[in-house]
Specification:
Elements lengths: L7 H14 L14 E2 H10 L6 H10 L5 E3 L5 E4 L20 E5 L1 H10 L9 E3 L3 H9 L5 E5 L1 H6 L5 E2 L5 E3 L7 E4 L4
Antiparallel strand pairs: 1-3, 2-3, 4-6, 5-8, 6-9, 7-8
This protein binds ligand HQG.
The site of ligand HQG has 17 residues, from helix 4.
């Protein structure tokens, strides 16, 4: 029987940490596009006392609520779909976003966001979602959520480049304040 060091959520959080932020903390390196060899990852996990079988890893990738990870077609490599703080080139193709996308945040940040626009902060991009509900969840991680509607169609026509990740999140470098409005949500 495999010894288990945590719930699926804990394992998924640990994988996010390693594949987005601190690969060196378990002695692995991501390639330029954010991929790491699955065998190398599993060996490193075993080495630090957090063993995972390949089947478990596959299950974590498939069942993840936000599809945070992707396996390569031949299952030999794995990467995080987005959310990196380490510099990786996801090699996504720019594409046209829908007319509007949404960003969830909290009231404390609003004044600064409306003055400076949305900035990528510690990540490599600003993250936007197609659905209001999803944005409510993202904002809700930090407190009472508020949702900003982003005029992404207008931004795109004005020359901003957008990228859609494998799990439907949209990425952009920054959102200047003139494209932002507060979207009313039920209290
Ligand atoms: C805020 C999670 C002040 C921004 C989530 C956000 C998402 C500003 C925070 C994904 C600002 C950055 C991304 C400005 C932006 N002044 N505050 N000018 N510009 N902010 O975590 O969008 O579970 O980097 O509003 O669910 O919250 O990790 O971005 O509150 O999908 O897969 O600065 O990460 O997904 O926070 O979250 P983050 P986010 P995972």
């Amino acid at each position: 029987m495999t010894y288990s060091w945590g719930s699926d959520v804990r394992k998924s959080k640990f994988l996010s940490l390693v594949l987005r932020h601190q690969p060196e903390s378990i002695g692995i390196q991501l390639d330029a596009n954010g991929w790491v060899d699955v065998d190398e990852l599993l060996q490193a996990m075993a080495r630090i006392g957090k063993p995972l079988s390949f089947a478990e890893l596959e299950e974590l990738v498939e069942s993840n609520d936000k599809q945070r990870f992707a396996l390569s077609g031949d299952c030999s490599r794995i990467r995080a779909n987005q959310g990196h703080s380490v510099s990786v080139d996801l090699a996504l193709e720019a594409s046209a976003p829908p007319e509007e996308l949404y960003h969830g945040t909290v009231p404390e940040y609003l004044e600064s966001i409306m003055a400076q626009g949305l900035m990528k902060m510690r990540r490599q991009h600003v993250h936007l979602s197609p659905g209001v509900d999803f944005a409510v969840r993202v904002g809700g991680r930090r407190g009472k959520p508020i949702v900003l509607m982003v005029a992404t169609g207008r931004m795109h026509r004005d020359g901003h480049r957008f990228f859609q990740t494998q799990n439907g999140v949209w990425l952009v470098d920054a959102v200047p304040p003139q494209y932002l409005t507060v979207f009313p949500i039920a209290a």
